[in-house]
Write a structure and sequence with these properties.
The chain is α/β, with parallel strands linked by helices. The chain folds into two domains: 2-74 and 148-181, no CATH class; 77-137 and 196-236, no CATH class. It has helices at 19-26, 50-56, 59-64, 74-85, 89-98, 103-112, 114-117, 124-133, 170-181, 204-213, 215-221, 228-236, and strands at 2-4, 9-12, 66-71, 163-166. Helix 5 packs antiparallel against helix 6. The longest helix has 12 residues, at 74-85. The radius of gyration is 19 Å and the shape is globular.
Amino acid sequence: MILSHSKRFLFFCNPKTGTSSLESVLSHYDESCGEDLASPGLFPHRHAPPEIVRALLPAGHWDSYFKFVFVRDPIDWVVSQFRWNFPPPLTYVKKLYWCPSRVFETVREYGTFRQQIHQRILEAADIHFLHDFLRRFRGIPTYPTLYQSTYAFDINGNKIVDFIGRFERMAEDTTSVYDRLDITSKTPHLNRSFRKPALASLTDAAIDAVHQLWAKDYELLGYERRTIAELRANERR
């Protein structure tokens, strides 16, 4: 989360939606250093969800500040989450080189997630594994795992932010945000991943699992759950 009193905004960092790029610009206005909102087992400070922040901030700030978040198509988001949490083997070699003091933690992590690290095509079981893994970052205590919708809606399904930008139209939506905040800047693309399209990494059963396990995000964020035949047809175009 980035809180700015001077610009009067709250930016909620929904992971794997280009938030690192936006933060590189908006962090210049961040005045949240005195707000420690981290909650072990639910979310780190950076990814505090709005429903929690609303309960902790003065009502005047919450009601008058511009609140926004970015979201991403659930299929693309799930694949991005999987690759981020279980990166390729070379990542662990780099960790050993750059952080030799953490050699035991790195070796243990690699051993624990070795199957996921080497998994190129994701099966339904991999999607279920990720869903369970993300329970440690679920954000809202009563939710079983991490959902994007918790960064835009409260537990009753009511929209809780003023603006929901989309990863798929990042340039246009960031321009809208900057215009609203009177910020002149260009957003770099940080943490860029060079991988094949998400659908190419999923079996049909895995796609079904995403539709099922992240149904809440489809419902609340307005992304269409297209049939596998439609998705594959678009993939071939």
